[in-house]
Specification:
The structure is a homodimer.
Chain A (H helix, E strand, L loop, with lengths): L1 H5 L5 E4 L7 H6 L2 E4 L7 H9 L2 E3 L5 E4 L4 E4 L2 E4 L4 E4 L4 E4 L11 H13 L3 E5 L3 H9 L5 E4 L10 H10 L3 H25 L4 E5 L13 H11 L3 H11 L11 H6 L1 H20 L5 E6 L5 H22 L6 E6 L2 H5 L1 H5 L4 E4 L1 H9 L10 H6 L16 H15 L4 E4 L7 H10 L3 E4 L4 H15 L8 H5 L1
Helix pairs in contact in A: 4-19, 5-7, 6-7, 7-11, 8-9, 11-12, 18-19
């Protein structure tokens, strides 16, 4: 895709599925089409964030990488042929269909401002770059609910330093490699803080398993070996040792920060140093650090302690300080079940309803597509639980957690940063549960603002908060 | 291992990890040693069932398959060298240490009979063969809580028929292949019913994902292609199409029975035809059919309907009938949260606490070993949650589910068939929750019987069942 783009041509990226290594290609593409995946797979989430059209998990296409072509409906499309996508319906069209960019006109703007005056929940955005942050802000987002930091490890030479860190055998080596990453992460955070001045910015610590940062195919491994001056065998050995049977339930999220506290330290330093720098340039910075994949209060408390200690070291070093919050991402069922304990030392909870849906149902988002059609057809499911929150299961955990969290920490802020934060039906549910905000990708912010107001009106004559028994019903 | 055994030599199987294909080798080995895995990995579960000594997930060894040797503590052990294992401590010894088989003497027998007279929970066993069933019965098991049927698909020529089914493109082809498997499964069930005459036998329908039945390495794929008269490409295509990113959260359990109802039909027919046959031979047969990986009442109801319809067809065909039960395995958090709905049509629940632990914590049992040592060292966990049930998270779900299930179906039978069913601390917890039975591997039956009695004595002056608030606390 990158080559075509360089030649000034418009391109649609067609892949079996996408991974963080495809980010560059996705960035320069007009649209993305994948054969595998679904609503919450990598391609869909990233494309949504970029505001790009995407069809992910199209069973109708079969891709032939070698010949650079794919087949659908009995016709073969070669590299260079025109196709058009409809991301809403999932239709793929032969040829070029004229498209129009969405716009925010005055009428819509008035309507949404009216909506805001009625709504009790705020709408934030999921944004990883200053550009996406500004887009969302223009759509009326009142802050960032989720900044993912993993893409920052792929930028420029960062990936080399990240791989150095992964290949390190001692903490000293890891710290040296992380020190190279720190300044670029800091710059990234500065850009986001600038774009969101005056509004809160929630930044999530590193979440994916480390093997996602290593090349899986042999030719890329050879390339990496040459770049880094190590043997291919050493890299392959590391790839093998990091291989996981179920990466979704593996060594990721806060489990990384607990085994390698130096990652948490580096990211905390980068976030808060960026915050201090921008504060000194006159911006109003409200940083919130979020620890992912918490399952136990002890995990959160240990990570929060590292964050506070690092912050104090930084503040002493700089002779300056800034307020910040530390919160837990609640996406593991066990965290929802023990939220009273976790809330004691947390400033906020953000419900990661994508992963919470995966674990509550036992549905891998990447594999769900194989049996979902059959489940729909036989009436076992009537909606995609990754699209619309499952109130009776996942929703019950969110509700239970919110009550438990507030029971030990009445001031705790509660939000949602899963894809459900942009889904109107789900927003109505989160309103009933009494959350403080939802966070969604930039282009879904307007619809979320409207849904937040509609939720108030729908519930006006009902009990604003369901009674306790409702959780248990 | 099989070769060595044929030469009349004693052998210890040393593998990176085991899979169902290793069953033959495990069967003839004195002990099993694996580099990967843990308390609930394949090697550990199967070895426990066989009553064999096993060390699974030993980080201390590095295996070199090519040279048929492994290294530990700086010393290399080659095929043919003597080693000894201590499965309790995980110690590996150089050389041959004399061992002694455990025996049930009269004193122990008296003690356990006394225990039974006090206990309110029964002890069943997890057994997949007549031999294991008898072993457990001799140790005092009061029935089978879990018969896994997957190994039956690997016996003799069954695997060929199973692979035919997987490669089938139509339901008719699948049914033809399944028809070949039916008589051998029926025979297996007959043997188990005979061994357990007078006691209930819970049989779980097929659980693992289909890709576990296909060879993953090229040479075995070639062999399979030759045996089946299809091209290697066809097999590789199927292997690729069945590949899953997170098989634990993939297309398995009742999801198989829902997409391929003919599997449920075949297994139901085999179970109940075996039951009728043995009844007519004078045995007292009490069959219980268990549907795995239920997450929604609709899943259970649909599978239960197929089972009942198949049973009626069989009973009409044979002009004879037998009583049987149909129950749900509760191992997905969502099932625990919606147990009131699932219980409406279920005769029993069996808590699969292995998978429930995986999903409630978000810990893959196969990958957990990578960060568990660090979690122990830093005090994040104080016990292996796969060994001792996590009362505050997983236990809370079990308790909630038990109360909910009984609220809509007061007669429902509740048991545990996860590894925790043989762990004394966990047994005390299950007693407090008010379950009817625990089920564990044969060699753990005596300790479980003792623990069931101790649980009664410990709780005598306390409230037998925790109050409602305890679940929420």
């Amino acid at each position: 895709a990158a080559d075509w783009h360089e030649e000034g041509k418009k391109v649609i990226l067609v892949r079996l599925e996408t991974s963080p290594e495809d980010l560059k290609g996705m960035n320069v593409s007009e649209g993305i089409l994948t054969a595998r995946g679904g609503m919450t797979s990598h391609a869909a989430i990233v494309a949504r964030g970029m505001g790009k059209c995407c069809i992910s998990g199209s069973n109708a296409i079969s891709i032939d990488y070698k010949n650079r072509q794919f087949e659908t409906g009995g016709k073969i499309y070669r590299e260079g042929d025109w196709i058009s996508l409809n991301g809403t319906t999932g239709d793929i069209y032969s040829g070029k269909i004229p498209t129009q960019n969405p716009e925010m006109d005055e009428d819509l703007s008035d309507l949404l401002n009216l909506a805001d005056s009625i709504a009790t929940m705020e709408v934030r955005t999921n944004a990883d770059t200053p550009h996406d942050s500004l887009t969302a802000r223009n759509f009326g987002a009142r802050g960032i609910g989720l900044t993912r930091t993993e893409h920052m490890f792929f930028e420029g030479n960062q990936i080399v330093a990240m791989r150095e860190m992964i290949l390190s055998n001692t903490m000293e080596e890891r710290k040296r490699a992380l020190a190279k990453i720190l300044p670029i992460q800091r710059e990234d955070f500065e850009g986001i803080f600038e774009a969101m001045t005056g509004l809160p910015v929630t930044i999530r610590l590193l979440d994916p398993p480390l093997h996602e940062f290593l090349p899986q195919d042999e030719s890329s491994q050879k390339e990496m070996a040459e770049t880094m001056g190590v043997s291919v065998e050493e890299i392959q050995e590391k790839v093998n040792s990091l291989h996981e049977t179920n990466p979704m339930l593996g060594h990721r999220g806060c489990r990384l920060g607990i085994t390698y506290p130096e990652i948490t330290e580096m990211q905390t330093w980068a976030i808060l140093e960026a915050a201090l720098n921008m504060k000194n340039k006159g911006f109003e910075v409200i940083p919130e650090i979020m620890v992912p994949l918490i399952g136990r209060a002890k995990e959160f408390n240990q990570q929060a302690e590292i964050i506070h200690q690092t912050a104090e070291r930084l503040f002493k070093d700089k002779g300056d300080r800034i307020k910040y919050k530390v919160g837990a991402m609640i996406e593991v069922p066990r965290a929802a079940l023990t939220s009273d304990l976790i809330a004691e030392k947390a400033d906020f909870f953000s419900y990661g309803t994508n992963d919470l849906t995966q674990m509550t149902f036992g549905f891998s988002r990447d594999d769900f597509g194989k049996f979902y059609p059959s489940y729909l057809k036989k009436g076992i499911l009537t909606a995609d639980p990754f699209q619309q929150v499952d109130e009776n299961g996942v929703g019950r955990l969110v509700h239970f957690s919110a009550e438990k969290g507030r029971s030990t920490n009445p001031d705790i802020k509660l939000g949602v940063c899963g894809e459900h934060g942009g889904n109107p039906e789900s927003i109505h549910f989160f309103h009933k549960v009494g959350l403080n905000y939802v966070s969604c990708s930039p282009f879904r912010v307007p619809i979320a603002r409207l849904a937040c107001a509609q939720a108030v009106i729908k519930n006006e004559k009902k009990i604003a908060k369901p009674e306790r028994s409702a959780i248990m019903a």
